[in-house]
């Protein structure tokens, strides 16, 4: 597999060249207060400042771009969140028709954003199996391909370009990464990070909410293990099972998975807002929560990269997370594997 | 005066060259939603992502750097907010002693941040006259110069470099600025913007909270007019009088002043957080509130630059501004002059 990973890494490099100028080269942010708290130097890749508010734009644009070049005239996507909106935006950019399948209880803002991007919105069921069935049916009828949110090499490679840019910019700044931390939903982002870091010696860690730890369990079992996801404020990290392709990549290259709870994610959200001055969605803040859980340095100062994957969050949740509260104690379960 | 302004503009260019690599070259951010609302293309210079969380770092660093080069071993500053902390940080960077005079009712976080930067903190009175008297006394005793928060050419030139970078980057992106909007406290930032824009044809507008409109009144009267500042959430925009040097620069070059109320500032704060995904302090958000007040385009699409001056804001205020609310109606007084 490791030879395959090295071969597949080329996909990330090609995606990065193709995406240059098509997506925002988001800044790398730092905070002395966070460095002090973490006991390591932390570099944040601010993909919440990406077009569409998340790094999903990278994978969607890469996948749609290749399909457009191959002559397709339309695409189909399903998701609860950022991926569907990103595919809609990417399709409009390439002049393709987009149909996106959202759950019947989707946040009205997400439905609005997909429609504003010109997509046809189909509301179907409340779980992923129902949406997948509807998306596949639409694909059979129309001949338009489905772009999966994470089980798709172009999507993984596109998401991986955020990690690749962070790795490059850390080197350029004279603070090369020792580790890279990425939140895990279906695993597309963390698999992309594994590809981007392949051969570099950089340790890649995934972060999962407690009770939404399909990747951690799958790594322990050696096969994909679905879970019944627990409630969490990190709603982007709740797929019931890690994707097949992400798992195949991660199982040979990921250093470990960190589990974090909602208190830790909330504390990370507040640190990012008050110290870095940017808005992360809780799913994105989970990356910092995980970085704060890594074993402390021994001796020299390490540099840890965190991909702030997105910033699409409802105002009411921001208000709730920023309201005065009592002191919190971290209660997560630590690093697995 | 206009010849003088052209001559003084050189100070901004020199400051920009000197500050390159010493401050963060902050990104320029955009949002299609905000463009749509404003009816113009809006480019934001995200100085909330600057070291120290505000563009005050630019002026402080430039002023302290010149004093260090001239052989001074210490500096003194007074302010209620970002300037004192910025001078403390700049002094530490240059190995100078810093004494900062803060009001006795200063926010504990500001006292902490000044001390964390290694400054001696003196608490004195509650109004600016008391602090100025104490700062001047300390200067007489120690021989260390006072760096005024806005009545100081290096400070004005330093703050102006944020505008200069925005002007340059807008040109590079193929969307040169037609107008530039900057919030007004003592007037250092807006005077710097006037210098940066001198000779370019770019219209520069200041923004003042309703009831804190010393600059607007001074421009109307032709002499500096102090006010008894009204309460506002934009606490950085409440000096009782515009500075002498900023007024001398602005009176010949500023296109106008826009007055905005707290509802408009709050609405701008929320737009910046939810659409741009960055945290602006209300004083910084006032810039967007002002831009939304400018007369709409006729014909071709104009491009308006907004300097997001800073992002230092208490968590409780963020919670209050993001809490669910009823629909608001703008009630400000519009453009003056």
Question: How would you portray this structure in words?
Answer:
The structure is a homodimer of 337-residue chains. With 337 residues, chain A is of the alpha/beta class. The first copy, chain A, folds into 2 domains: 238 residues, Rossmann fold; 70 residues, Rossmann fold. In chain A, the strands form 2 sheets. A 7-stranded mixed β-sheet of chain A has the order 1-2-9-6-7-8-10, sandwiched between helices. In chain A, helix 11 packs across helix 12. The longest helix of chain A has 20 residues. The radius of gyration of chain A is 19 Å and the shape is globular. About 3% of the residues of chain A have low confidence. Chains A and B meet through helix 11 and helix 13 of A and helix 11 and helix 13 of B.
Low-confidence stretches of chain A: 326-334
Within the largest sheet of chain A, what's the order of strands?
Answer: 1-2-9-6-7-8-10
Q: With helices defined by DSSP (H or I, 4 residues minimum), what is the helix count of chain A? A: 13
What's the rounded overall pLDDT mean of chain A? 92
Task: Provide the domain count of chain A.
Answer: 2
Q: Report the major sheet of chain A.
A: 7 strands, mixed
Instruction: Write down the secondary-structure element order of chain A.
Output: HEHEHEHEHEHHEHEHHEHHEHE
Percentage of residues in DSSP E strands of chain A: 5-15%
Which chain pair has the greatest contact?
A-B, 24 and 23 residues
Q: Provide the structure class of chain A.
A: alpha/beta
- Taken from the alpha-carbon principal axes, the silhouette of chain A is globular
Care to count the β-strands of chain A? 10
């Amino acid at each position: 597999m490791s030879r395959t990973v090295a071969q597949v890494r080329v996909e990330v490099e090609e995606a990065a060249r193709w995406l240059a100028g098509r997506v925002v080269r988001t800044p790398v942010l730092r905070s002395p207060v966070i460095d002090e708290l973490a006991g390591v130097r932390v570099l944040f890749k601010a993909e919440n400042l990406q077009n569409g508010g998340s790094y999903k734009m990278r994978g969607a644009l890469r996948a749609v771009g290749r399909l457009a070049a191959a002559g397709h005239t339309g695409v189909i996507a399903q998701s609860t969140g950022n991926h569907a909106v990103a595919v809609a935006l990417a399709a409009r950019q390439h002049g393709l028709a987009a149909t996106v399948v959202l759950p019947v209880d989707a946040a009205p803002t997400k439905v609005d954003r997909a429609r504003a991007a010109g997509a046809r919105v189909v509301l179907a069921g409340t779980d992923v199996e129902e949406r997948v069935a509807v998306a596949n049916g639409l694909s059979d009828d129309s001949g338009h391909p489905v772009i999966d949110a994470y089980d798709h090499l172009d999507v993984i490679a596109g998401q991986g370009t955020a990690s690749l840019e962070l790795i490059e910019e850390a080197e350029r700044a004279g603070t090369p990464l020792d580790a890279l931390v990425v939140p895990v939903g279906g695993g597309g982002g963390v698999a992309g990070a594994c590809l981007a870091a392949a051969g570099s010696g950089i340790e890649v860690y995934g972060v999962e909410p407690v009770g939404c730890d399909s990747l951690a369990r799958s790594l322990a079992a050696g096969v994909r293990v679905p879970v019944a996801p627990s409630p969490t404020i990190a709603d982007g990290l709740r797929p019931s099972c890690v994707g097949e392709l992400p798992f195949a990549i991660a199982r040979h290259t990921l250093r470990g998975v960190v589990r974090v709870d909602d208190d830790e994610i909330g504390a990370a959200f507040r640190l990012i807002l008050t110290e870095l001055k940017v808005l992360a969605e809780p799913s994105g803040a989970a990356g910092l929560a995980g970085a704060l859980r890594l074993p402390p340095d021994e001796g020299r100062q390490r540099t840890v990269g965190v991909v702030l994957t997105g910033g699409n969050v409802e105002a009411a949740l921001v208000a709730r997370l920023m309201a005065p509260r009592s002191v919190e104690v971290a209660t997560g379960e630590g690093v697995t594997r």
